[in-house]
Amino acid sequence: MVNVAVVGPGLVGQALIQQLLAHEVPGLALPLVGVINSRRMLTHSAPSGHLQPLASPGQWAKQLADAEAADLKAFVTRLAATPGPSVIVDCTSSLAIAELYPAWLAQGLHVVTPNKKGFSSQYELYAAIRAQTGPRRPLVYHESTVGAGLPVLNTLYDLVRTGDEIVRIEGVFSGTLSYLFNTFSSAGGNDAQAFSAIVAGAKALGYTEPDPRDDLNGLDVARKVVILARVAGLALSLEDLDVENIVPAALRTVATADEFMAQLPASDDHFTELNREAAAAGTVLRYVGTVDPRGRSSVKLVRYPFDHPFAGLKGSDNIIAFTTKRFASPLIIQGAGAGAAVTAFGIFADLIKVAERTA
Amino acid sequence: MVNVAVVGPGLVGQALIQQLLAHEVPGLALPLVGVINSRRMLTHSAPSGHLQPLASPGQWAKQLADAEAADLKAFVTRLAATPGPSVIVDCTSSLAIAELYPAWLAQGLHVVTPNKKGFSSQYELYAAIRAQTGPRRPLVYHESTVGAGLPVLNTLYDLVRTGDEIVRIEGVFSGTLSYLFNTFSSAGGNDAQAFSAIVAGAKALGYTEPDPRDDLNGLDVARKVVILARVAGLALSLEDLDVENIVPAALRTVATADEFMAQLPASDDHFTELNREAAAAGTVLRYVGTVDPRGRSSVKLVRYPFDHPFAGLKGSDNIIAFTTKRFASPLIIQGAGAGAAVTAFGIFADLIKVAERTA
């Protein structure tokens, strides 16, 4: 049994709660004991003050809207005072929340999260989180911070903890950039569409951030590379990475997303030329993050031969290749690396691991 | 801490012991307390009779050769009587050994194994093993029974335990058959070699069983499909599968492997014709196992379009695709699915999970 409290029930948190309530895990109880957003918090306390499972968990959203004012510190104190193991699921993308993990862990709470900030911001925060965890100490699981529910980090943790040597980690870690380049540059002949038209189409479908420059600048991919590098044992931070910002230089200071989109077609020739050169060399373009333990880790546009697994990528799938001493032919994991249901799946699987390890 | 005892230290068991001794897992102790093969057994007991870590574990092979006569029952009794959690690693491929798991588990021992027999033979044995395990009861991990160290079963367990719906599991699960068909039938144009020549080459390189019919009959793949199906919740056994034995009918009763190899060229036209038809349809041939929860599960030659991930498979890699309700675009795992080092890695990672859950 492990008590579950959710911070920041947005799309992912809602999907998680839905999965938790819809499915009972044989032999393990994962009662939902609290939900908090930036305005309200919902808990259900016994006279002792200890938290109880929410009385009507299926009604949590409705009840939260009418619940008491949010006080994260009080919420965490109630959870920590409740007997039995408890886990906080941070479904925000907030650095300020991630900065609280060391204190939460020090209070004996476990942490499961898809929030990248705690693992990819200043190294001191990462080290402080690690210092509070260990085989017998509170647990931290964050599978969904890279590739959503794809078994990327659990696999990397297994490789590292069994003493395998990481030679290289390479992958397409952004569903958005996967979609853009899979559409723009494919082994089956390049699409007639201009790059700006593909970006506009993706934006219309909701595949990009509101300002697509937040995808094209590579920062989201860079955070994932930092997480992978740190799990692989490298004391690396964002500033140590070579990140290729593919937003054309002239468009980086344009004020609004709309103006950016309006001016992007002026750069189409640039992208078309890159693509033409790649195709002439029998390759496609992919926007790839690489962890290189012996050299510079990077985020950049890379060419791959038509028969490379990255060249065959479809839709908005992520793909990651681990080359290690034992896996000389890379261990590859591929599939949907974004979306509420698969992200929630990764969190749910992490929660089961916490429940098993505290059973 | 968990005491580790290895049964059947062949190539995989030796690789495992080498990995265990070469690498200390931070915060977790995995002392090697016993090794047994069919002739000898090596343990090191305190005056109390309790097992101690082997005195010079690096010398285990030499010491085993001079150790006492093997008595598996006594070996297990000593292990079960030793305080603290203990795990037996069955590195044999013996059904008779696998039939002992329920009794071992009933004695409180954990089991980690790459031996497929306990999970793919009569359903009653599988059910008896499952009946002895659970969140708080002794643990069974068998990641390396399918795809060696590739994170196949842990991923499937996560999908199932979080309530995802398995729509289809499909994969190339034999390194040998992967190699044969990747060489014979590729998107880049088919090799000029006859099928029999490719089999002969693979045999010479040690890629096949001593009698290649033990690969071509599909039984090894069928066992893996049964394991996947059972983990997915289906009460399926070998006899429920449609298995395509690609050994030509006339060659199934030929007495020796040499005679089989001598007569195989007479079937080359048959395979060449299959391959030609596949290529004409823009496809390649792959020998694939499929779990279909709503229909018949099977093991057979299947055609895949040139741009399908299975068509791009190289060398002797395994590949597996999980299609689920949440992962509508399949979750794919690919890489070396055979070999002592990667099989041992899968076992080692399982041992760490046991150690963490009993910490």
TrEMBL record, chains A, B:
Source superkingdom: Eukaryota
Swiss-Prot/TrEMBL keywords: Amino-acid biosynthesis, Methionine biosynthesis, NADP, Oxidoreductase, Threonine biosynthesis
GO function term, MF aspect, one: NADP binding
Binding site for NADP(+): G8, P9, G10, L11, V12, G13
Known EC number: 1.1.1.3
Enzyme class: oxidoreductase
Alphabetical list of SUPFAM superfamilies matching this protein: Glyceraldehyde-3-phosphate dehydrogenase-like, C-terminal domain, NAD(P)-binding Rossmann-fold domains
InterPro entries in alphabetical order: Asp/hSer_DH_NAD-bd, Bifunc_Aspkin/hSer_DH, HDH_cat, HDH_CS, HDH_short, NAD(P)-bd_dom_sf
UniProt: NADPH binding residues: T92, K116
Name of the protein: Homoserine dehydrogenase
Necessary cofactors: a metal cation
Pathway: Amino-acid biosynthesis; L-methionine biosynthesis via de novo pathway; L-homoserine from L-aspartate: step 3/3; Amino-acid biosynthesis; L-threonine biosynthesis; L-threonine from L-aspartate: step 3/5
GO term, biological process aspect, one: methionine biosynthetic process
Reactions the enzyme catalyzes: L-homoserine + NADP(+) = L-aspartate 4-semialdehyde + NADPH + H(+)
Binding residues annotated for L-homoserine, in chain numbering: E209
Domain Aspartate/homoserine dehydrogenase NAD-binding: 8-131
Family: Belongs to the homoserine dehydrogenase family.
